[in-house]
Write a structure and sequence with these properties.
The structure is a homodimer. The first copy, chain A, has 3 helices and 22 strands. In chain A, the strands form 2 sheets. In chain A, strands 3, 4, 7, 10, 12, 13, 15, 17, 19 and 21 form a 10-stranded mixed beta sheet that branches. A 6-stranded parallel barrel of chain A has the order 1-5-8-11-9-6. In chain A, strand 1 and strand 2 form a beta hairpin. The two termini of chain A are about 30 Å apart. At the A-B interface, strand 21 and strand 22 of A face strand 21 and strand 22 of B. Chains A, B: Belongs to the iron-sulfur cluster assembly SufBD family. Chains A, B: InterPro entries: Fe-S_cluster_assembly_SufBD (IPR055346), SUF_FeS_clus_asmbl_SufBD_core (IPR000825), SUF_FeS_clus_asmbl_SufBD_sf (IPR037284). Chains A, B: It comes from Luoshenia tenuis.
Chain lengths: ~300, ~300
């Protein structure tokens, strides 16, 4: 494992020199370390790059780490990871991703993650993305997430793009059976000429299923962000989606959410707000002795927390 | 003017047997009466069906009536009306539309309205749509509204679809210069197998321009409604859009609003909520002695007011 990977892992996946429990470290398209546990089996995917992770029914309190790093230009890493989560399991998955280039070569990671949650399974999924390195090559991360939730299952996605990623296209698709829950907290920071696009498509197919999508973004510099979401309510269900964006400098944002209620008992709500930080917020912090720039940083930090 | 036209006019355009001031009545594609005033000149459009209406700068307190009725099947009426509103004028335009068929022939009205508001001109535009008659022929109303607002101009659109329109596709496009204002209050009621689609595209191009779009809809029976909106903020501006929908029986609704902030001082907000009437609201009115159905009617009436 090289030095850059070590640094990226510390940023994106709570790495402190070692992982406890099940893990797989992917470095420039290859496996740089793997460990299974009694309850969590990590295997190479036959016929395609990537992993098959089996989590035994009833597994509680364990964490699986599956970070992926690209540490040089001219690498376009594509990986397919499948997670089979047994009935009643309650597990955390940490899937950070860092891309780094020091030259003009593009450093790209495409992670295609599929989650199959059995009855009453619960997953907390944390994903941090970062781009680093002084190279001129583009740093790209294009994650695709597909989640199929059985009755009573719950998926909580907590995703953050810390910065330095030139281009990202994030697609999240989920289908929920009865009483299943999806919670998404997404925070994306872009600067310079970066571009981020995020697409959610959630189908509330089972009775009393529900989702809560909250996307917060900060667009600075000349960066541009696009938010798309679609919540389909096919039966008695509750869906909420929210997109809040802060603009700074010359950043621009587009928000395009859709609600589709095809059942009288589907209750769907959306909110979106785009704007810059209110002057009075800045003023309040300046009276406490912060400079205008420090005040802005503080507000953005709080907004993305 | 036939009896059906008389009845439709009473429903859609405050008609009480006569109009005061400037008016043009369109009946089955022909002119059934017209009057200009000193300040408001109504003329036939050269080279196309429709009107050219000139409102003199500074005109205050007048109302122009331009209702259109289709009173039988197998009529597909297409009309182009242009309104040139002079600087500082402050006028109300009433543009109701009724379609009626007693047979299997389709009764359709397509009104393409263009508004050119000069500096500080102010227009209140009221439009009621209704379909009547026991025929099996489709009743369609497809209005297109294009508004160009000069500096400080203001357009307030108050549009209602009362019911009985099988199919409607409503397109509204507006471009606002500095300090201009657009306010839209749209209410659409559908029932049976009716289908309504509404599209807004508003460009806030001038500094401190603003828009406030509020669409309320009730979808009953098997009816389906689609709401699309797009607000583009190109400069310092404020845009708000809201889509609230009540579902009853097997009605379904799709809401797909978009916000596009391409300037750091553009402040854009959207809200959408789709659902059926809350049980406690019904209960409250039932304790006052109303039946469940009466309670529902009362709530819907208030919602669409």
């Amino acid at each position: 494992m090289n030095r850059v990977t070590d640094e990226l892992l510390r940023m994106v996946s709570d790495f402190t020199g070692a992982f406890k429990g099940a893990f797989n470290i992917r470095e420039n398209g290859e496996c740089a370390g793997r460990q299974s546990t009694d309850n969590i089996k990590i295997e190479s995917k036959p016929n395609a790059p990537g992993l098959v992770v089996h989590i035994r029914p009833g597994t509680k309190g364990e964490t699986v780490y599956i970070p992926a790093c690209v540490t040089q230009g001219n690498i376009n890493d594509l990986v397919y990871n499948d997670f089979y989560v047994g009935e009643g399991a309650d597990v955390t998955i940490v899937a950070g991703c860092g891309v780094h280039t020091e030259d003009e070569g593009e450093a790209t990671h495409n992670g295609i993650h599929r989650f199959f949650l059995e009855k009453n399974a619960r997953i907390v999924y944390r994903e941090k993305h970062v781009g680093t390195g002084g190279g001129t090559g583009q740093k790209r991360i294009d994650p695709v997430t597909e989640a199929t939730l059985a009755q009573g299952a719950s998926l909580e996605m907590d995703t953050v793009q810390l910065g330095g990623v030139d281009e990202t296209y994030r697609k999240t698709w989920a289908k929920l059976a009865a009483n299943a829950r999806l919670v998404v907290r997404e925070r994306i920071m872009t600067d310079g000429d970066e571009h981020a696009r995020t697409d959610f498509e959630v189908t509330l197919a089972g009775e009393d299923s529900g989702c809560d999508l909250v996307s917060r973004s900060v667009a600075r510099g000349q960066s541009h962000q696009e938010f798309y979401s679609s919540i389909k309510g096919l039966t008695r269900c509750a869906g909420h989606s929210e997109c809040d964006a802060i603009l700074a400098e010359n950043g621009t944002v587009t928000a395009s959410p859709a609600l589709e209620a095809s059942h009288v008992d589907a209750a769907l709500i959306h909110e979106a707000a785009i704007g810059k930080i209110a002057g009075e917020q800045i003023l309040k912090l300046r009276t406490l002795g912060l400079t205008e720039q420090e005040a802005e940083e503080k507000i953005i930090e709080g907004f993305l927390r």
